[in-house]
TrEMBL record:
Species lineage: Eukaryota, Viridiplantae, Streptophyta, Embryophyta, Tracheophyta
TM stretches of this protein: 42-64, 70-95, 130-151, 193-217, 283-304, 324-345, 388-408, 414-433, 445-471
GO biological process: amino acid transport
Residue stretches making up the Amino acid transporter transmembrane domain: 39-471
Subcellular location: Cell membrane
Top-level taxon: Eukaryota
Family, similarity comment: Belongs to the amino acid/polyamine transporter 2 family. Amino acid/auxin permease (AAAP) (TC 2.A.18.2) subfamily.
Main location: membrane
Protein name: Amino acid transporter, transmembrane domain-containing protein
Xref: InterPro entries: AA_transpt_TM (IPR013057)
Amino acid sequence: MKIDEKNAANYQQGFEVSGDFSSHAPSKFFDDDGRPKRTGTLWTASAHIITAVIGSGVLALAWATAQLGWIAGPTVLFLFSFVTYYCSCLLASCYRTGDPVTGKRNYTYMEAVKSNLGGFKFKICGFIQYFNLTGTTIGYTIAASISMMAIKRASCFHEKGHDHPCGVSGTPYMVLFGAVEILLSQLPNFHEISWLSMVAAVMSFTYSAIGLGLGIAKFAQNGKIKGSLSGISVGEVTQTQKVWRSFQAFGAIAFAYSYSTVLIEIQDTIKAPPTEQKTMKTATLISVITTTIFYMLCGCFGYAAFGDHAPGNLLTGFGFYDPYWLVDIANAAIIIHLVGAYQVFAQPIFGFVEKTTSEYFPESKFITKEICIPIPGYKPFKLNLFRMVWRTMFVCMTTIIAMLMPFFEDVVGILGAIGFWPLTVYFPVEMYIAQNKIPKWSSKWINLQILSGACLVISICAAAGSIAGVIKDLQVYKPFKTIEHL
């Protein structure tokens, strides 16, 4: 038990413990790997997933539907939800190598790839995963600043009238968001942010419901369903623009469903029995069904309300007129949600860097020493100097990049395109094939490869459309400029 206590203490300090503890018997305080007892449930896992999935990407779904039309739009939304759920179940089965009850745990997405596919693919996966996670935190910083600017402009219009330009810069709001994230980033790991995910999940439902309600009200005010079967018409845009924007819509939808990069890390918080795999699959089903219903409603009612002119951000499409206070509430909910979502996507990066540095410099006091700070009525907070410095630097870096490139729709389209195929489809499919020893050229193997190939084509098209959008934005963009429209 002394060994178990030592390993558990190390883990609580935020560092991974090397070695195989699968032979350790579970006890009242420790799991079978010598780590502190996991306490996550179906509902905490669902909250983490919903926090990761229902991001501000939901607000771009009306725009995405407008590019694709009444037939292709809802169809693509449904297909992405199905692929996300199916591949997430494949990935969840790779949490343990071998037996789903007693097999060796894979604590991160990268460890699962390394256990099942080997070193080379493990390195490629790591690069793509952490690039995508970092890009997502940048995108969330941009999105939070947009909502803060929307609240400021709404207040300005209400006081000075709608003829006033009410220009506003997003830079100070990004700095404010970054300052909050620096504080929250000192929470050591996923186990410490369940409360934050719960709050963020409630906020995501709040602004999604408001956006949906405003879309329904706008639709009722119009008295008719706008839009067409084929989407935005040539004339509103050129034929070339329609193609690129349709591809970009794929990326926006892919981003709206992306959470596979943190699935294994979320699964590692779940207690057993039942098996982590079973709980995670159920949590995935609940979360994907919930988010798909919201996505369908927001995308379709937004398109029905605005037609070809559906905005990139559903909430800003209602202008800054009454009920401006309701739009302000929705934007405030977005900000609170993104505060939590940032942490869900940043924690795997933090854990990886801290694990690697502790393995390379195990004797360094700067990296390993914990300072206990007493908190009245609560357990002491363990402050680690390396964690504080490194995480602060990371948040500052993402904030600066967000200031330099605030193109939310195009950025998330690129991130969705780059991350969707390899992280959501390719690696889960390949790991599942390897772990279950599915024979090459068998019917199941062929079907899985067809799924992977089709998603690769979609990702390439989405990346091309989003890159074209960024190039167009860069032609007219000036850093740190005051913005007079959102």
